[in-house]
């Protein structure tokens, strides 16, 4: 019985890579996740000015690089000149904002599965984002089951269902809405990803009864989600996958 508990406890996705140990959404953070033995990384993808899928969370480059301005207003060549690591620590000055193509290449080599969050800010074009991402995925020759799309934007997930129907889809919600099941059916979802702080036991039960995978973001201390495992939550999307590995080491 104790062994079963441990098995559940270690199911984690490295949120933006192992983002407590290396600058988020960089190849260094993804390599760190691989070194920790994570199965999954989560990445945020949006388009550059010249419509290249880039891996970066914020609308602007200001917080996570030495540059400034909106990602959507900077071309790939400009984005690639930025230092995306120094803000986190001197050891990471070589880091650049990765493209989706570079990230998928690293993931493939290191046997990492990738949760691709389709990141849409106001003014972004859903169709172009989905088409460009779809093209990169096809070129990457990744195995479909190694990838998962997630988004707060249901239209983006719907478009991906048409473009890459074989790749599974997860609906992101901060708080799960009352009409969740109808929405999930609409996009033939595989999973629901919600903020752990707002999930209730009843919502978890309903989703599990309907056979959806249930993921929580972003509990950075295992103790915050002790009860969630009992509710049937399948995976934690966390900045600190190493904290969950420590639990395994202790329990075994
Ligand atoms: O996948 C969960 C999480 O990434 C969603 O929120 O803002 O960190 O992209 P955010
Ligand atoms: Mg994200």
UniProtKB/TrEMBL annotation:
Residue stretches making up the GP-PDE domain: 10-248
Pfam families: GDPD (PF03009)
CDD domains: GDPD_EcUgpQ_like
Name assigned to this protein: Glycerophosphoryl diester phosphodiesterase
TM region positions: none
Gene3D superfamilies associated with the record: Phosphatidylinositol (PI) phosphodiesterase (3.20.20.190)
Domain of life: Bacteria
Organism in which the protein naturally occurs: Psychromonas marina
